[in-house]
Amino acid sequence: MSETMLSPSARKVELALRARGFTNEIVEHAQPTRSSAEAAAAVGCTVNQIAKSIVFRARGSGRPVLVVASGPNRVNEAAVEAALGEKLGKADASFVRERTGFVIGGVPPLGHAQPLTTFIDADLMELGEIWAAAGTPNAVFKLTPEELVRMTGGQVISIK
Question: Which domain holds residue 145?
Fold first, then answer.
């Protein structure tokens, strides 16, 4: 899809990618890809290759914390709390939108409204290519796990 045809949120992600020197192509689908299974079916990959973005609120500081997890994995909050040094709380839709600039289901790993402390699921590092949300529930982009680490500055941890 040409960049002039991207939705405003997907275009914002594309600009963030370009500003960091990445050339990954964003693909927007007619149907939403809100779940890992929907995203995997849309792009023709396994659910493991979907890098889902989950935003938490650190309880003490209130700062946003992003966990980029492999599609089927559940986040063990205790593991993330140990790496963060702070308890995690749930982030509601307004918190996610305010802190990232994106809606739940479309939060990309970069291009946020403010810096996010980021943790990356170690399971993603075992894959050759992965897919991440690109600003809307319909938009995704392909990248390597190494690119994910470079573009986010995230810390790779076991989230299980």
Answer: 3-157
**Cα 140-144-146 angle, rounded to 5 deg:** 130
pTM for the whole thing?
0.95
pLDDT (tens digit per residue) in 45-101: 999 999 999 999 999 999 999 999 999 999 999 999 999 999 999 999 999 999 999
Domain count, the chain: 1
Query: Residue 107 is part of a domain; what is its CATH number?
Result: 3.90.960.10
Question: Using an 8 Å Cβ cutoff, are 49 and 127 in contact?
Answer: yes
CA torsion 109-10-133-57 (nearest 10°) is: 50
Based on its alpha-carbon atoms, the radius of gyration of the chain, rounded to whole angstroms, reads: 14
Residue pair 136/106 in contact (Cβ under 8 Å)? The answer is yes
